[in-house]
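B., you asked whether I could sanity-check this one before it goes into the benchmark set. Here's the sequence:
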Amino acid sequence: MEAEVKQSQVFYELWAWAEINWRRLAGGAAVVALIALVVSFYVWKRDVHAEAASQALSALRPTASPDGTPVMLAPAAYLKVATDYPGTAAAARARLLAGSALFDAAKYADAKAEFDRFLRDAPENPLRTEAFYGQGACLEAQGKTDEAVTAYKSLVDRHPTDPLVPRAKVALARLYKAKNQPAEALRLLEDVATTEQFGTVGLMAETLMSEIKAANPTLSTHGTTTTNVVKVVPATTNAVKVAPAATNAAKAVSAATNTPAPKAK
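And here's what the prediction gave me:
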């Protein structure tokens, strides 16, 4: 009963305070309502912007060559989406596609610039591993072997479970082969051949492994150098006892002359 009395007292005190400060409360409620309205409008506009970006990117459908091979659109088409709808998922995807189109056009430096910008603008984007792989491919195509190794290793080391890692390992092995480091190449290829044995990447790994082993026959399947061990059979210790020829001859003479044969010493 005493608790009910205290609750009623608190309620009446709050009610009295509200009557005195109703103007302040009304102003605060208006401010809260205005903030909620602004946030709602921002979210709505963002969603509309993202939907428009998605539609713009979807409209850029790659064409197909007479043999059915997809043909990438001009890089400018993708870059327009990235420029017109910044900050959207579609814009990030468009920038990756622009990088791929530039790579196909053999504009490797420009392609890498797009992959670099993607990672700079959206470092946590789920598609970042594609950008890492693109960086490595561009550097490899430009003959920048050491930098390409670093880019591929960044993907392999930082995202070991990503689906692109097997391809990155094959690319790394190819570079190690070019750098005359067959042992390092074999270690990577053996792993890919095991995990991707039924896929195209696994076949690529097997083919490259065969080439490396043919050129380096002393390397084992684990990339270590083998040595040929020759087993030497120890000589026998059983001596064959042969009667001296002089003793046999002496016996023959003794028999003919009836004289005692000399004893062998």
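One thing to flag: The first strand starts at residue 63 and ends at 64. Otherwise nothing jumped out at me.
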